[in-house]
Amino acid sequence: MKFAEITGWGKCVPPAVMTNNDLATFLDTSDEWIRTRTGIEERRVSAVGTSALATVAARNALAAADLDPLEIDLIIVGTCTADEIIPNVASKVQQEIGAKNAAAFDLNAACSSFFYAMHFATSSIRMGMHKKVLIIGAERLTRILDWTKRESAVLFGDGAGAMVLEASDNHAGLLASKVSCDADARDVLSLDFGMSFDRYNFDGVMPFNFIGQEIFKRAVKGMSAAVEAVFQETGLSVDDIDVLIPHQANKRLIDFLAKMCKVPEEKTMVNIQKYGNTSSATLPIAYTEALETGMVKPGDSIISAVFGGGLTCGAGLIKWGERVTPLQNNQMTLEQGANQSALDLILPLFEGAKAAAAKAES
C-alpha cells in the first residue's frame, strides 16, 4: 500500500492588513481587549474572491513540488465561502492552473475542511484511486461577517493554503487520523445563507450565529478526544511528537492543546497573531510558515487538530518526509487589490450592516 507523502505546499495571504487599532476606529474595542482574549493582533482582508486566493496557493504548492498541473488527478477545495453555489471553487482552480486531467470538488466542514480533505485524499491515494492530489483550504470570511458585532468581527480573516499529496513508498504523510462531528451543537456556529435563505427579503446582513463559549467548550472536548484516538491507533505518546500545528482559532485553545500534548512553546506553531482565524486556510498556511521558519525538520512527527462548524472535528499524525524546502519558488502573491486598504474594503460593509440594523428597528 502506498503512502500519501506531502511534496508541495504554499499559501496566499491578501496584501491588505487590518490591525486591532483599525478595528477600534469603528467598533467598541481595543488592541488590548482583542489580544488578551484571542491572541490576534491583525488579519488580512481580500479584495478578490475565494477562487482567486485558492489559485495562487495552488500554484505555490505545485511550484514547491515542481509538478506540471496536468499531473494532478484530483483537486479538493475546503471552503465555507465559495464564490458561487454553482459551479464549485475547485473547478475554477482547475481551469486557472490548467489541471485538465483532474477531478474537482469542494468540501465544506467549515474550519475543519482542509484536514477533512487531507483525510479523504490520503485514503484515496492509499487505496490506489488517485496518485497526485491537490488539496486547498481557502476562505474570504470578511465578506460574510456582521461588522457591527464585536464578538465575531474581530476573530476572522481571509487567506488560502495548499498542499500536494503524492503516492509514495516513503513512510510519510498522514499516517493516522480521526474525524468526527458533534451535530447536536451544529447551531452554535452557523450562517443561514443557503436554500433556506429568503433572498427576496434580504436586508444586507447575513445571519451569522456564533456562540463563543459553547464553541470553545466543545472544541476542547472534541479535539482532545481526536488526539487521544490518534495516539491509541498509532501506539505513540506525547513523547514522540516533534511539532504541534493546530487550527488557529484562539490562542487560549492552542495553549490548551500544547499543554495536553506536552509540546513546548518553541515547538508549537502559532501565527494567529498575524492572520486571525482563516477557517479552512489556517492549517495549510501554518504548515507553510512552519516549513519556511525551519520549525518542521526532515522526518518530524507532527500532530494537528482542528474543529469547525457542524461541529466538525479532527486530529492526525503527520510524518514529514526528507524534503523541507520547495523545489521551485513558491512565493507568488496576489496581484489584484494591492492598492486598497483593509478599511477601504471593510467600512462599506460596516455601514451597510448598521443601516440594515436601523431599518429593522424602525
UniProtKB/TrEMBL annotation:
The gene is fabH. The active site is at C111, H247, N277. GO terms for biological process: fatty acid biosynthetic process. Its EC number is 2.3.1.180. GO terms for molecular function: 3-oxoacyl-[acyl-carrier-protein] synthase activity; beta-ketoacyl-acyl-carrier-protein synthase III activity. Belongs to the thiolase-like superfamily. FabH family. CDD domains: KAS_III (cd00830). The last Arg residue of the ACP-binding site is essential for the weak association between ACP/AcpP and FabH. It is found in: Cytoplasm. It is an enzyme of class 2 (transferase). Residues 232-320 form the Beta-ketoacyl-[acyl-carrier-protein] synthase III C-terminal domain. It comes from the Bacteria. It comes from Aliidiomarina haloalkalitolerans. Homodimer. It catalyses: malonyl-[ACP] + acetyl-CoA + H(+) = 3-oxobutanoyl-[ACP] + CO2 + CoA. This is Beta-ketoacyl-[acyl-carrier-protein] synthase III. Keywords: Acyltransferase, Cytoplasm, Fatty acid biosynthesis, Fatty acid metabolism, Lipid biosynthesis, Lipid metabolism, Multifunctional enzyme, Transferase. InterPro entries: ACP_syn_III_C, ACP_syn_III_N, FabH, Thiolase-like.
